[in-house]
From TrEMBL:
<dbReference type="InterPro" id="IPR002935">
    <property type="entry name" value="SAM_O-MeTrfase"/>
</dbReference>
<keyword id="KW-0489">Methyltransferase</keyword>
<dbReference type="GO" id="GO:0008757">
    <property type="term" value="F:S-adenosylmethionine-dependent methyltransferase activity"/>
</dbReference>
<protein>
    <submittedName>
        <fullName>O-methyltransferase</fullName>
    </submittedName>
</protein>
<dbReference type="InterPro" id="IPR050362">
    <property type="entry name" value="Cation-dep_OMT"/>
</dbReference>
<dbReference type="Pfam" id="PF01596">
    <property type="entry name" value="Methyltransf_3"/>
</dbReference>
<dbReference type="GO" id="GO:0008171">
    <property type="term" value="F:O-methyltransferase activity"/>
</dbReference>
<keyword id="KW-0949">S-adenosyl-L-methionine</keyword>
<dbReference type="GO" id="GO:0032259">
    <property type="term" value="P:methylation"/>
</dbReference>
<dbReference type="InterPro" id="IPR029063">
    <property type="entry name" value="SAM-dependent_MTases_sf"/>
</dbReference>
<keyword id="KW-0808">Transferase</keyword>
Length: 221
């Protein structure tokens, strides 16, 4: 099995379980037209995020890494009307594209895009005593993943779900000799997760239209 087969199966899953969705299709089209890289989660992965948020009954969601707002829209759809999603993005152009996509999807009332380096934004949120989040999705620059985990824990409560994307990287993350900064960030993140008594966690390898990767899933207890 390789990429063509994984993509074919993802297409089948999408055709079978994910009805056509104008807002999400328009989000991907607008993101591409604006020159954003197609490094958003796959549709079935986005729906998994929505399902996790629904299963958790999330009312407050934090996302680190917005891009064009594709995963943001999936996650925000799990929120009740009075729910809130805060998404952090470094690049003002990405944030502008995301805000338009989120507004088109009818979710502007519950989503806030905060622009800036996420570590600084998170530090300001913690210093301001921001209320804890029920679900945190980490999907930005991987070298900073250990810092994002610390911030996610500081902004969590027992029952918070933490999801981190791209923790396998075609298997490169399992190489202890790697000097790749992203791999090092992911390995340090996984070690910190393992050493954290407040977390129960696992990680899952995935294949699909986005290649071979995986995600980590943790629960704050
Ligand atoms: N979650 C998005 C989705 O699935 O639709 C994809 C996010 S993309 C993989 C990563 C995003 O994180 C990019 O838009 C990038 O500009 C942003 N990013 C990278 N470094 C960052 C940082 N230090 N602070 C905040 N955002 C950052």
């Amino acid at each position: 099995m390789s990429q063509p087969a994984w993509s074919r199966v993802d297409a089948w899953i999408e055709q079978t379980l994910l009805p056509p969705d104008e807002a999400l299709a328009a989000t991907l089209e607008a993101s591409e037209a604006a020159g954003l890289r197609a490094i958003n989660v796959a549709p079935n992965q986005g729906k998994l995020l929505m399902l996790l948020a629904l299963m958790r009954g999330a009312r407050r969601i934090l996302e680190i890494g917005t891009l064009g707002g594709y995963s943001t829209i999936w996650l925000a759809r799990a929120l009740p009307a009075e729910g809130r999603l805060v998404t952090l993005e470094f690049d003002p152009h990405h944030a502008e594209v995301a805000r338009a996509n989120i507004a088109r999807a009818g979710l502007a009332d519950r989503v806030e895009v905060r622009v800036g380096p996420a570590r600084a934004t998170l530090a300001a949120m913690i210093a301001a005593g921001e209320a804890p989040f029920d679900l945190v999705f980490i999907d930005a620059d991987k070298p900073n993943n250990p810092h994002y985990l610390d911030a996610a824990l500081a902004l969590s409560h027992p029952g918070t779900v933490i999801v981190a994307d791209n923790v396998v990287r075609e298997g490169r993350a399992a190489d202890p000799a790697s000097t790749d900064e992203s791999v090092l960030g992911i390995r340090r993140f996984m070690e910190k997760v393992a050493a954290e008594p407040r977390l129960v966690a696992t990680a899952i390898q995935t294949v699909g239209s986005k290649g071979y990767d995986g995600f980590a899933l943790a629960l704050v207890v």
